[in-house]
């Protein structure tokens, strides 16, 4: 079991990992955090020892008692201290080492927000109902913002201060979409990178069932129905 090594100096990049009962996946995920980066595991009420294991493996652990994917993500963003913050699921479906070119683009001013376009690897990596829901949301997003994105996946990178300035309020499944919508309203340059998407370890809490997918689509549809945000949160200086 490979532990994550963290430097006492401020991390160059913080990787926020929302976590709810992911003890089985944590060793694989944390072993793939790039050197010099800090893993911020946000425990969202795990009962399988995830928080203790993450701490043993060298991650910074933040506790967010309020259930919800958005609540966990935002707690991690608030706790982060690095200039650039990344987000990645903690279920081993996505490899956090793939974030290196995302960060490179943000740092070079080629993008303000970089998203991972998931490319399924093997059967069961992306269930049909979850893929259909994502496609429908991408189409609605295009009508709402004009962005021609093909995925709204959780792997992403941006600068911390501008993200906080977006004033994100959703604390459920709509959080990732609200980030994109408000960034688009603020004139951010948003790009995509293709990334392999593996079968997750364990069962999904959101899109593992039709019911979970329906709840996620409902949450995100509410975000798309919001009026255009009157925000001054522009993209990072390029």
Automatic annotation (TrEMBL):
Pfam families in UniProt: Glycos_transf_2
Record-annotated Glycosyltransferase 2-like domain positions: 15-132
The family this protein is said to belong to: Belongs to the glycosyltransferase 2 family.
Xref: PANTHER family: RFBJ PROTEIN, UNDECAPRENYL-PHOSPHATE 4-DEOXY-4-FORMAMIDO-L-ARABINOSE TRANSFERASE-RELATED
The protein, known as: Glycosyltransferase family 2 protein
Organism encoding this protein: Streptomyces chiangmaiensis
């Amino acid at each position: 079991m490979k532990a994550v090594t963290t430097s006492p100096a401020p991390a160059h990049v913080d990787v926020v990992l929302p976590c709810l009962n992911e003890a089985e996946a944590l060793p694989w995920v944390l072993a793939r955090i790039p050197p010099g980066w800090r893993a911020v595991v946000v425990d969202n009420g795990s009962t399988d020892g995830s928080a203790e294991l993450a701490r043993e493996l060298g991650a910074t652990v933040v506790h967010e008692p309020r259930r919800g994917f958005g609540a966990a993500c935002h707690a991690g963003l608030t706790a982060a201290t690095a200039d650039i913050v990344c987000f990645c699921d903690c279920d081993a479906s996505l490899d956090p080492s793939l974030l290196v070119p995302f960060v490179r683009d943000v740092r070079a001013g080629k993008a303000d927000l970089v998203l991972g376009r998931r490319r399924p690897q093997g059967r069961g990596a992306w269930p049909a109902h979850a893929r259909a829901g994502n496609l429908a949301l991408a189409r609605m997003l295009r009508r709402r913002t004009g962005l021609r994105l093909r995925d709204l996946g959780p792997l992403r990178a941006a600068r911390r201060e501008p993200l906080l300035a977006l004033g994100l309020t959703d604390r459920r499944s709509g959080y990732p979409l609200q980030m994109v919508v408000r960034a688009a309203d603020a004139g951010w340059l948003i790009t995509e990178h293709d990334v392999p998407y593996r079968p997750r370890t364990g069962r999904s809490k959101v899109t593992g069932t039709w019911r979970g997918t329906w709840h996620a689509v409902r949450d995100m549809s509410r975000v798309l129905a919001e009026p255009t945000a009157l925000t001054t949160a522009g993209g990072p200086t390029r």
